[in-house]
Amino acid sequence: MVSIGPIQLPDFPLLLAPMEDVSDPPFRVVCKDNGADLMYTEFISSEGLIRDAMKSKQKLDFYDFERPIGIQIFGGDEEAMSLCTKIVDTVNPDLIDINFGCPVKKVAMKGAGAGVLKDLDLMVRLTEAVVKSTNLPVTVKTRLGWDESSKNIHEVALRLQDVGIKALAIHGRTRMQMYKGEADWTLIGEIKNDPRIHIPIFGNGDINSPEKTLEYKNKYGVDGIMIGRAAIGYPWIFREIKHFLATGQRMADPTIEERVEVARKHLIKSLEWKGPIAGINEMRRHYANYLRGLPNIKEYRAKLVTLKEPKEIEEVLDEIKVTYKDMIIESGQIVLENYHENCPIN
User: Which residues contact 256 (CB under 8 A, 6 or more apart)?
Assistant: First the structure.
């Protein structure tokens, strides 16, 4: 078992990364269905929450069946982070996570997210302010450092552990790398294997297959992994990884019916949580991912991103299921039964 304070997770847990405009309750539902062990909300601005901003407040929503779940906050002011933490406490999540990893300019250049990596003393003060404002476990997600010349993750891990965090998730890139290049897990492994570190260390970055998960598990010794972009439109990655780790065998890829039905559930949950207008509009970004690799899917996808009535959208999903009923998903390819050609999934 892996423990984050009182939270008990299975051996080598799979975490769903907090992703802005992605990791909302409807998306988390389908990831939980497919085996995510711990999930986080989209990150919440401490300043926005204490100002009672509607968008920030809405991000506090979660369903009980999502537990254990962490609410992620960010900011660069100690008092605001403390007040924000006390507000988050009122909705009773399982843990509070601090984002010191977001690389986008509007966050990092304002001294929050990955921007705090340039001022480690401030990072420690912000973390301590959160830890002292709650009885919940506090965790942190961060990066290797600001740039190649300032990879300070060793000092970050030790100092944040000293002020009371219960787990650390590390993305294997610097802030300046954004999401470019290959994630470097070498330092993540060094942190995990440092005898001074006694909290769980989770690795994040470029995990997109069961095989890579097993390779990195064995090579770097991390306590678990955090999966982000690979889960978008493909929540089955959690169950596939678990199956592979347990058996050494790959699961069959999701069928056309599974793809359509998970997209449908995602849509229904989106409508329930966001209402008919926002629910439909914000779901549009997901269809291409759910239907990725299907041949001649462009016409259907165009309908899904323009229709405005839930019933019409569901009818298109049903039509897709019927149209592609003679296809199966196999080893990363769409295979047409009774045909020799196939269409690789990109």
Answer: 294, 320, 321, 324, 325, 327, 328, 329
Which of the following CATH numbers is that of domain 2-247: 3.20.20.60, 3.20.20.70, 1.20.1070.10, 3.30.70.120? Answer: 3.20.20.70
Query: What pTM, to 2 d.p., does this model score?
Result: 0.90
How do strand 7-9 and strand 201-204 relate by DSSP bridges?
unpaired
**Taking the alpha carbons of 34, 38, 43, 49 in that order, is the dihedral positive or negative?**
positive
Active-site choice (31, 84, 102, 343) = 102
- 256-344: in CATH 1.10.1200.80: yes
Which of 294, 71, 101 lies closest to 188, judged by CA?
101
Spatial distance between the Cα atoms of 329 and 7, rounded to a whole number of angstroms:
36
Q: Is the dihedral of CA 244, 249, 253, 258 positive or negative?
A: negative
| φ, ψ (nearest 5 deg) of residue 310 | -55, -40
* Helix, strand, coil percent values for the chain (each to nearest 5): 45, 15, 40
- Give yes or no: 102 in active site: yes
Q: For 173-184, how does the pLDDT look when each residue is reduced to its tens digit (9 = 90+)?
A: 988 888 888 899
Euclidean distance between CA atoms 130 and 136, whole angstroms: 10
Q: Which residues pair with 328 in a beta bridge?
A: 335
**Residue 31: CB partners within 8 Å, gap ≥ 6?**
16, 39, 231, 235, 238
- pLDDT, one tens digit per residue, over 144-192 is 988 888 899 999 999 999 999 999 999 999 888 888 888 999 999 999 9
Q: Measured between alpha carbons, how far is 333 from 254 in angstroms, rounded to an integer?
A: 11
Domain boundaries, the chain: 2-247, 256-344
Both tokens of 144, joined, read 């290797």
